[in-house]
Amino acid sequence: MSFSFPVRPQNIVVSPRLNEGVKEGTINLTCSVQQVKPQPKIYWQIGDEGPMHNGSDTDSVTKHPNGTFSIQSSYQWQAKHEDDSKSLYCIITLDGDHKEVLGKEKTHKPYGQAEISPLTLEMAEGSTDSIYCAPPSVQGNPAPSWFVWRLQNGTFLKNTTSPELKLSPANVNESYLYQCIAGNYLGESDASEWANITVLGEF
């Protein structure tokens, strides 16, 4: 009579590590485990969702003379901004599930229209006031690091790292329609609505 005992995985190797963030698009992932028994299965999972790929069509399996198996699975993952902050797992099914996390931060540009407030501002010449540019609801990862202001006549104002545009002291020549854009190093949001600033001169 002979007995066969399971040999559990000592180390799951995944590549590439995604802890530094990734851009949207196709990413080639691999996951491997060496000398385990019985032959395991590998599948891929993101967040709490069910398996998104079982790896069976891309698995490379080696059987060793001692009866153990080494297996490597490849997966082409389509990174999307909707997956931001979700963990991506390589899971080995052998005497229970053994998980290895590849990473969770997915980088992307801001999506949608920036928001400007207030949309209407009336101020006296020589006074001080501000309008603000807020990123869209999907603000981007990393968060916007620059803001651009544009006048209705097509003139672009200086880029700034602050969402605030301060008029101090206000001049009647600054009576314009203003628009803003928020962005990070991956791209920019859609332009905001137009804000109407009126600077009243002295009579």
TrEMBL record:
Residues 9-93, 110-198 form the Ig-like domain. PROSITE patterns: IG_LIKE. GO terms for cellular component: adherens junction; membrane. Its main location: membrane. Keywords: Cell adhesion, Disulfide bond, Glycoprotein, Membrane, Repeat, Signal. It is found in: Membrane. SUPFAM superfamilies: Immunoglobulin. It holds the Pfam family C2-set_2. Transmembrane segments: none annotated. The keyword DNA-binding does not apply. It comes from the Eukaryota. One of its GO terms (biological process) is heterophilic cell-cell adhesion via plasma membrane cell adhesion molecules. This is Ig-like domain-containing protein. It comes from Ridgeia piscesae.
